[in-house]
Amino acid sequence: MGFVAETGSGHVLMMDGAPDPAKPENGGQNLAARPMETVLAGTGGCTAYDVVLILKRGRHQVERVSVKLSSDRAEKDPKVFTKIHMHFTVAGKGIPAAAVERAIALSHDTYCSASVMLAKTAEITTSFDLIET
């Protein structure tokens, strides 16, 4: 159940399924991320990228941005995401909270194709911590 995906940009991404002790022939070996984990991780990367760009374009002194995603999925197939929460940590000098809130909203509502797409099946919520450096 291990897979290698080559992206359009020529990079390689490894994926695997969860081990299934009851039916080992149907499970993975837990050697890489699950496909749906990569969807969630890609969404986090997409939105974090936007937040950094939006803040920098606003001439804010951003030092680092991280985002932690948590999610719930439907119990029956297709097990789509039904809830996603994105918690951002933004560190920098003199960045107003309103600017961070605006950057997150712009990413979520307009620029991040992944979160706009996932919002079709999932309730997406956000929060953030702002760290003065």
From TrEMBL:
Disordered, as annotated region: 1-26
Any Pfam family the entry gives: OsmC
UniProt-recorded name of the protein: Redox protein
